[in-house]
Each structure stands twice: as C-alpha cells, then as structure tokens.
Amino acid sequence: MENLTTLGVLSASALGPLHDEALQAWYGQAPDSVEPEAGLASLILAQHFSNFRLWAFEDEARRDDVDDSYIADIKRQIDPWNQRRNDLIERIDRAILERFEGVDVSGAALHSETAGMIVDRLSILALKIRNMGVYAAREDDPALAQECSEKQVRLRTQRSDLLQCLERLIEEFRRGTRYFKGYKQFKAYNDPRLNPAMRN
Fold first, then answer.
1. Which of 96, 101, 142, 156 gives a 20 to 30 Å CA spacing to 90?
2. CB distance 166 to 10 below 8 Å
C-alpha cells in the first residue's frame, strides 16, 4: 500500500479499495484487533477496524430478544472502541501534518475538518456501502433489494465526492493554500473526573 501516499498526498484511487478489501477480509474472518504499525496505511486500517467493531456493537445493542444485562455489556464495550477510533483519527492527522511541517501556511485558508476526520467518514461510508450491498443482493425480497441497490449507488457517489474533497484538501495543503490543524477530542465521558454521572 505504499502507493497510498506520495509526499503525504492521499490517493483516492487507493483509499476506497483499502477500506473495501479490509472489510471483505474481516467479514470473512475478523481478527481480535488490528494494531497500527509504521506508515499511514497501517493507521488508516487500524482506525477502520475500530469502526468495523463499533458497527457490530451498535447492531447488537439494538436487539430486543436478549436480557438487559447483555445489552449493558455491549454498551460498555462501545466506549473504549470509540475512544480508540478518535485516538487513531488524531494519529492520522499527526502523520499527515508531520509531512507538511515545512509548508508555509501563513496565507492559507483554515479548513474546518481535518484529514483524519474525513478518513473516518470514508470508513463509515465503506461500511454502509458493504452492508447495503448485502441486502441489495437478496433474492427473497426484491423490493428491499431494489431499495438497497439504489441507496448503495447514492452512497458510492457520496464516497467518490468525499474522496475528491480529501484529495483536494491534501493537495492544497501541499501547495500552501489551505491547511488544517490537529485537534484533540477530549472525550470527557470516559474520564470519571469529568463525567458527573461517574463521580463519587
């Protein structure tokens, strides 16, 4: 996946397949975790896996055929994975910002959304596209299959547009005409000092 980046420029032609191929493998046999290693692609995959796990937990949390204790256990697993998801978004941003440390942005416009945030949105779109495709392929409910097929087309268009936006942001950052900052999410709900419901 070295072609994913060239001087920090994310390739739209590589990022979509990276997300899709990972989902195909994980839905076949999911690992317990995907740990980030060296390189931007590794960070993106680890962040994508966090969304993959969260998607499954959110589905399970909506079941009404299990005891409340089961739902409570699922809900408690969501927060750590969501924290990991956000931490990896920040690491993606740091990795990209490090590549542009020498770029003069004194006259550049500030972009409100970071590259890592866009990568996260693309990850979720990949999950939506994949799961909508499952129902689009069903033969037992033609009406549902048609509805989901049409939704999948729209989702693919959304992803294509967003990939172009990401690529434009990175290219403009490289040229010094637009930039983003690295932001911290400061998720207070995981900190008992900051969550009033957890304070003794």
1. 156
2. yes
Count the Cβ atoms, other than its own, within 10 Å of residue 107. Answer: 7
Q: What is the pLDDT of residues 88-128, one digit of tens each?
A: 999 999 999 999 999 999 999 999 999 999 999 999 999 99
9/75 Cα distance (integer angstroms): 37
Q: Is 5 helix (H, G, I), strand (E, B) or coil?
A: strand
| Cβ 111 vs Cβ 178: under 8 Å | yes
| Whole-angstrom distance, CA of residue 170 vs CA of residue 166 | 6
pLDDT band, very low/low/confident/very high, at 12 (cuts 50, 70, 90): low
CA distances from 84 to 53, 108, 185 (A): 11, 31, 11
- Quote the pTM value: 0.89
Q: Are 85 and 130 in contact (CB under 8 A)?
A: no
